[in-house]
């Protein structure tokens, strides 16, 4: 392990009082990422990229279990392909990075660095699908995309180039494409619940904020501790928009030619931004055991006369844990004192610290310290690996519970414009209110407090299609409400 | 599984007589890749991408075992960064794709789509390394790079965008950087030997054909069945070239500032091109069991009266193999006859076919057919999973042996210019000859028969540093020989 300099170790900013600066400091000091020389780009370092690999591993297994094949399409899309679907070109044109020269020659046609790949994948689907028996066609790729946004860079949250996976699927009819859209949303929700220790809300984007060309954009929203909402993943039912633009048709069982329905779904490294923002604290990063490169660090604490016994005992503990497939670091550095080591591993987010001193050796014990809250528990040496595994589950549960509390407290209702503005202004979080469906009413809120409608209830799921009852009026304009809207500031 | 149309199944070209067309046909009909709309680009389909994932999985495990951390650096490199190392800019400038516009705005500085990442990674290494204790710094990324070459596209072998991994490492001194360069060459060699069933030769590129800025470019060369050499992977000892250009220095144990030594090493999806070219035949793809998505296909062969018994028995066989972690397909399609199925799985390269008919059911047996040579062996039902595993090893050994025979027969010597030209012209393969070291003598051969020096012996390895004895004369110009050169046509 390379050693950071002492003065670099401490987090100096406050999560509560200067969230943005604190976040940037955690990302850099925990060695997750650095800023690249070009504005808007970052470098993901080994400790940051390993978290992304953890997400990849989980999702890839789920995708494979449900029939998805991984592919790789070119990173460039000819301008004429982008232009074939008008909503895509309108939606992404302002954000496209253009390649104009290859070597010393100007290209005959500009190439877009992919902002998303529907426009290059759908035409190939149309070659590969001929009959209804070829469905479903389930493709996914892990790659980077570029969107030339002008807003400030925030590592993982907002970068001009970002890593993501994009799934693209073709189906026989609306029902199966819709089921696919929901299946992927479910898998993303499982990732958040079971791997990232983050509860989320399910919904869909209002019509004016859908993915370009989509019929429905389903979304998972996660509430950050600072009261802003993070769009955690989206899954789009695209209807026949792209299939029509790229002639994705098939011969049905009755020998008639029909147009396919498509879906696309993606999750980016913004999920890592959410993970860091949700769990980290003023001591540094806090990682759930599911993703932590080291789940446990064993720190020996000795005086000159106890060194041999402590080191031997501590090393045995580390070896036992390793053998039980618990990812364990044994910090046996002589040149650092325990306090320094505690700080460093706290900064790096290691979920559980095991302290071994003369006392532990004598009593055949180990002291376990939970990273999230510092709770310290003395446990017996026998069966320690199993005990540690339980503590890791407890640490995960603590992280999830804290995030869940934040979410539960963060959903409020408002019956008037003033209440809506005041509630978001005071508390942040989500405010649920009846809404007429017009973008103008969202704009009114946006202009005043920079909050927007991050989601409305998802139709077609269990429970009522909408939470708004008859007779409700839009919280802004007073016209009859069409749905319930979740207003929030967002990342 | 989606079904290709019948007429698409057969390979019509001959590997021996029209190698290029045959190769393109295998790639497309085995559904590995398709041509993208932009010349020079391809789409890797699930069956092709899965092979790349197999390579990734193997190498990633080896890299991780030897301390490498995966990272992700931006796909763009500012022009000014490329220009800081003059050999890099000269070497790659003619092949760089340039991004000039972000959205509607022209960029102040052009961005190169990375052709290789030394120029963006080394400056960060210089930030991360401070003292000799920070070595070795071992980074790797899996990504795509773009080189705007004008030559014809050959899927996997030669594409303007290609997938690869690029390792970048920094070291205290020459010795450790050189050891790293060799360690990675060893790992690539193991990949070829143990996963791709391809023997290779180790060597280094002649001075005029090194990686831009490198001190030494070590290479693995694989001989294709058509007599051409494939550069299978390269590992570069970069000396202090990049460290000097990007100020990668460190404080040594004696408190003095010194310049680091760096290495880089890469393997691209050309390895898949070599795999296909080496093993496939006029029936289609042939995959080693190490990489095949399905290692075994079980095909039931029944008449109306035997259907139930055969299907039941065959399904049990498939279930048994699955349970033994053998990747098994059970082809129970009713609408296809066995002959069609045989052809299709042969086209897809499945290493082992198991035929189950009434005879096998009656005698409690299974008929195993090896893909490479069609050898058919009847085996008992009991312990079949273990037997099948042995047959898979045999199939691998057959593939390797055939490639090894080709390589052994393909290395010849020549003592005169005429013999050199004639031997390559007649047989292809490698011709070893004494060489003076001057590029002009290679050019003379290149101009005449389009062969080049693909490698010279690697220095610093076991055995003699060079094979050329004192008194040998350059096969072209007759001046004193400096080394032995391996001449060959190459991909």
Offer a concise description of the structure.
The structure is a homodimer. Chain A has 3 domains: about 270 residues, BirA Bifunctional Protein, domain 2 (2-Layer Sandwich), CATH 3.30.930; about 110 residues, Rossmann fold (3-Layer(aba) Sandwich), CATH 3.40.50; about 80 residues, 2-Layer Sandwich (Translation Initiation Factor IF3), CATH 3.30.110.30.
Describe this structure in words.
The structure is a homodimer of 491-residue chains. By secondary structure, the first copy, chain A, is of the alpha+beta class. Chain A has 3 domains: 12-279, Bira Bifunctional Protein, Domain 2 (BirA Bifunctional Protein, domain 2); 296-407, 3-Layer(aba) Sandwich (Rossmann fold), CATH 3.40.50.800; 411-488, Translation Initiation Factor IF3 (2-Layer Sandwich). Chain A has helices at 19-29, 46-65, 79-82, 86-92, 118-128, 174-194, 241-245, 270-279, 307-323, 338-348, 358-363, 384-409, 417-427, 439-449, and strands at residues 33-35, 42-44, 69-70, 76-78, 97-102, 105-113, 137-146, 161-171, 201-204, 216-223, 229-239, 249-251, 257-259, 261-268, 296-300, 328-330, 352-356, 365-370, 376-380, 411-413, 430-435, 452-455, 483-488. In chain A, the strands form 6 sheets. In chain A, strands 3-7-8-14-11-10-9 form a 7-stranded mixed β-sheet, with helices on both faces. Chain A has a 5-stranded mixed β-sheet with strand order 16-15-17-18-19, sandwiched between helices. In chain A, strand 12 (249-251) and strand 13 (257-259) form a beta hairpin. In chain A, helix 2 (46-65) crosses helix 6 (174-194). The longest helix of chain A is centred in the last third of the chain and has 26 residues, at 384-409. Chain A is globular. The two termini of chain A are 34 Å apart. Strand 5 of chain A pairs antiparallel with strand 5 of chain B, so a sheet runs across the interface.
């Amino acid at each position: 392990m390379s050693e950071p300099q002492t003065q670099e170790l401490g987090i100096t900013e406050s999560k509560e009082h200067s969230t943005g600066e604190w976040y940037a400091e955690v990302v850099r000091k925990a060695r997750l990422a650095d800023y690249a020389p070009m504005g808007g780009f970052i470098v993901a370092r080994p400790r940051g990229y390993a978290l992304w690999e953890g997400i990849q591993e989980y999702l890839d297994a789920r995708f494979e279990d449900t029939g998805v094949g991984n592919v790789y399409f070119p990173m460039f899309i000819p301008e004429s392909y982008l232009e074939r679907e008008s909503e895509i070109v309108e939606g992404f044109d302002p954000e496209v990075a253009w390649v104009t020269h290859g070597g010393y020659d100007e290209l005959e046609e500009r190439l877009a660095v992919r902002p998303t790949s529907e426009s290059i994948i759908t035409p190939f689907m149309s070659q590969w699908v001929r009959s209804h028996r070829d469905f479903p066609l389930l493709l996914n790729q892990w790659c980077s995309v570029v969107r030339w946004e002008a807003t400030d860079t925030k590592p993982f949250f907002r970068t001009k180039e970002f890593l993501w996976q994009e799934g693209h699927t073709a189906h026989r009819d609306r029902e199966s494409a819709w089921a696919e859209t929901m299946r992927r949303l479910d898998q993303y929700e499982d990732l958040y619940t079971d791997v990232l220790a983050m509860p989320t809300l399910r919904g869909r984007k209002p019509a004016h904020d859908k993915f370009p060309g989509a019929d429905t954009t389903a979304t998972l929203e996660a509430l950050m501790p600072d009261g802003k909402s993070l769009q955690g993943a989206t899954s789009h039912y695209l209807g026949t928009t792209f299939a029509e633009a790229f002639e994705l048709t098939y011969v049905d069982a009755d020998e008639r030619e029909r147009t396919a329905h498509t879906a696309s779904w993606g999750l980016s490294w913004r999920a890592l931004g959410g993970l860091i923002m949700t769990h980290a604290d003023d001591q540094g990063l806090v990682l759930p055991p599911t993703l932590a490169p080291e789940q446990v660090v064993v720190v020996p604490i000795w005086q000159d006369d106890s060194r041999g016994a402590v080191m031997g005992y501590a090393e045995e503990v580390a070896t036992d844990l390793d053998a039980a497939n618990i990812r364990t670091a044994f910090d046996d550095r002589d040149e650092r004192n325990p306090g320094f080591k505690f700080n460093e591993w706290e900064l790096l987010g290691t979920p559980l610290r095991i302290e071994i001193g003369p006392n532990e050796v004598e009593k055949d014990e180990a002291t376990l310290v939970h990273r999230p809250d510092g709770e310290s528990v003395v446990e017996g040496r026998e069966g320690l690996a199993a005990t540690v595994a339980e503590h890791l589950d407890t640490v995960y549960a603590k992280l999830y519970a804290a995030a869940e509390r934040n979410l539960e407290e963060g959903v409020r209702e408002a019956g008037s414009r003033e209440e809506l503005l005041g509630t978001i202004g005071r508390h942040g979080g989500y405010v649920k209110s009846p809404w007429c469906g017009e973008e103008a009413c969202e704009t009114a809120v946006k202009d005043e407090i920079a909050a927007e409608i991050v989601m409305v209830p998802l139709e077609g799921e269990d429970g009522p299609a909408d939470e708004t009852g008859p007779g409700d009026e839009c919280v802004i304009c007073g016209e009859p409400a069409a749905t319930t809207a979740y207003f929030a500031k967002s990342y």
